[in-house]
Amino acid sequence: MIKQLIKMFKFVALAALLACATAIPNQPRSKLPTLDGRIVGGRDAYIEEFPYQVSLLWFGSHICGGSLISQNFVVTAAHCTDGATASQFSIRVGSSIRNSGGSTYTVSQVHQHPQYDEDTIDFDISVLRISNNVALGSAVGLIGLPTQDQPINAGDDATVTGWGTLTEGGILPSQLQAVVVPVVSQAECRRAYGTSSITDRMMCAGVPQGGKDACQGDSGGPLVVGGELIGIVSWGYGCARPGFPGVYSSVPALRSFILSQAGI
């Protein structure tokens, strides 16, 4: 039942978000990403604080977040790229404002995890190759990566950033947002969603009382601890609901895939 409710919420939320935010009414629904991830309770942020944050653009409009891991590779969520081609995407770097400023680069290749499952949302990661090397500076920088299967400690403060909605079912903000949430143990994550729903490629972060979380439009964006990308905004039951932490793709668990595609 939980899984069905999550899917229903995600379908309705994504349809509303795309209708209001992307302004691309003539594109076939089948070509759209099948999910959109779940910043609530955060603060205005500036790209100089989080220079690795990128905006993934679909036909020129923000659809998801991403993380710059080298001058020519970005990590995002597979559900942001599923059913689409590289030519439909570009990335914006170096701007705190959604759909404005900074620099944009075309995407030449989408390396979506071959085991990504749109039903279970497992293996939710894509590595994007950028056509030209991104110019680094004070507002454009790289995020560090953990080692394969590096432990993620419950209770560690993690920072998630993005241009997702400020409330469940709300509108996208113009200004980049950031919120700090503690990492949740795998046992607690599975108690919330059910053991079968949380695989070894997933992790959770959030506060028990709710009120702080990622939300629609943050999908694919970074969850960072100690200067390393440990999570990718993936899914969850609503946004910032008590008892339901945000679910992220575990970067340590998927590190070997990043290495195989980006060589780092």
Give the key terms.
six-stranded antiparallel barrel; 264 residues; alpha+beta; globular
Provide a quick synopsis of the model.
The chain has 264 residues and is α+β, with helices and mostly antiparallel strands.
How would you describe the overall organization of this protein?
There is one protein chain. By secondary structure, the protein is α+β, with helices and mostly antiparallel strands. 17% of the residues lie in helices and 29% in strands. The chain has four helices and 13 strands. It has a six-stranded antiparallel barrel with strand order 8-9-10-13-12-11. β3 and β4 form a beta hairpin. The protein is globular and about 45 Å long. The N terminus is likely disordered.
Strand content: 25-35%
- Tally of helical segments: 4
Which strand order do you get reading across the main beta sheet? 8-9-10-13-12-11
Mean pLDDT rating = 86
Structural class by sheet pairing and helices: alpha+beta
Write down the overall geometry. globular
Spans of at least 5 consecutive residues with low confidence: 1-38
Q: What is the terminal separation in angstroms? A: 40 Å
Helix content: 10-25%
Instruction: Give the biggest sheet.
Output: 6 strands, antiparallel, barrel
